Queue: 3 jobs
Job 1
Amino acid sequence: MDAQSSLRLVEAESKLERPLVQVGFMRRFDPEYAQMKQMLDAGDLGRTLLVHNVHRNKVVPDSFRSEMIVRDSLVHEVDVCRWLFGQEITEITVLAPTPTGAAAEGVLDPQLALFRMAGGGMCTTELFVNCQVGYEVRCEAVAERGNVTVGLGQSVFVRRDNHYGGEISDDFRSRFGRAYDLEVQQWVDACLHGEVVGPTSWDGYAASAVCEAGMASLVTGGPVAVDLADRASVLAGAAR
């Protein structure tokens, strides 16, 4: 749950004969996200410049505090942006407007996170865990010659109480059930061959480091640099 212990896991795993850890960031296995990644990597749209995310829950318990919105919700967008850009996040800023009246006392909800990527790109994420509408996860990647959006479902303009003409689920399993199935099956298939697919222990460490900086930014309201270890040095040092 923190960068220091996550880094120790990376170092320990690197001493083994083969990797063992697959982190459960299942959006990489969602067919819509996977198609977005393929389109961006193909290069037809040019370089990816911006990524915009929306991450909303209908309601969470009062025990879900401000820092958990960063650590337990935003962490998924951290992995999505690192994955789509193929780069590390170097800086994070987390801001909070006037909180919704639906949030527990003292909880900063919604929040807005801004990432700066190593290659110069930027990402925004709206986090709203008591939105009163339903479970919504959307992502738009903006490239030089086009953009790709996932998670729309249907053309929607008005959203209220789980409805927009169709239905907005209040359960994340309805949105990502297929992704979970694909993730588990690919993990099983890879294990049979002594391999690991999907997010690695390093991806888990990097996400923890970004969220740790994000929780610090939530307190100060200013940008916080991500203190990430040098990957090559860490793995080389562990090998010795």
Note: Strands lie at 48-56, 89-95, 111-117, 122-128, 136-143, 146-150, 224-225.
Job 2
Amino acid sequence: MIISDLRMPNMSGFEFLSIVRRRFAHIPVIGISGEFVAEGMPTALLMDAFYQKGGYTQAELLSTIRRLILESPIRPHPPRADTAPLWIPRREAGYIVAVCTECLRSFPVADDSSGTEIRLAECPSCGTTVKYMVDSAVLRMLEQKRNRLP
């Protein structure tokens, strides 16, 4: 089992998780972050569970660990998704992070969160055209959380 923060020195946590998922799909992974929000987003592309720092109890984490261990040891590679999950920084950054549906690497895209249409971005690592959409409900929730931060 791997429990990993998404903020790491010298390597993006998203990059690390994409390598783990591609090469070691059978290893259960829990991602934790205080900088990114995954509210309402499918996380299975890169990890089996996600927790917001400070937003879970030890009992919840232990329950998830037990469940993931019971689901192991052999797990098939996750199916290739046709839309990319997005990670939205909790603090103003001017970008959001998309995950390539082909190579699973993450890359920044401009934070143009107006509208709800499906957008396209090219993965800088493999050239795949990635479809993504910013859910305005998630943005409203994020804005409410930002207003509560000190």
Note: The longest strand covers residues 29-33.
Job 3
Amino acid sequence: MTAIFKKKNFISLIITQLFLMGCSTHVVVVSEHPPALIKELPYKIGLVLDSSFTNYSFIREKDDEKITISLGKSQSELLNQTFSSMYQSVSEFITRPLRPTKSLDLYVSVIVEDLQLSLPRETSVNVFEIWIKYKLEIFDSEGSSICEWIISSYGRTQTRFLGSQEKALHQATNAALRDAGVQIITGFNQIPEIRNWINKEKAVKNESQ
């Protein structure tokens, strides 16, 4: 009886593991970020993206389902491409240098503050939704803080257009990343502190000519 009982327990364990494996979704976000067609400003940017950002993965375990969305590589490429479109050059750093170099004009440090997702079965609408909250900290060439800026991006997709949950989550995440890129391009230089910094830099340049 003991052998039979152990065998049944073993079979039950295997079935449970297979069930849990079947309820696991892992999305590796791959996307293309074409350069924005805007006039670049003549400044050099130090983009600070630490390992928690470049390797970022969102994990949610709920109702016996595990969902993992790995978007660190894609969001890092997005930010590099976005700031490269806006400014003369971009240099990436893992940490902000303790002794800032005069060759760079601004440092922009970016972190993911939050990521949330909503599945069709959790809402009254038949869509997948993704929200990503980023915090940007901006410093001048001396390392002094200029300001912090929070952006909340959003992406959604219709389930009826896609064949799997993985594809739906991938598309919704890409939409959220594109939204973040658009917000940075249209809003970054309009931040009052950044606009004031640009005006001061222009005044200094005009005085030196």
Note: Helices lie at 2-22, 51-54, 72-86, 165-187, 192-208.
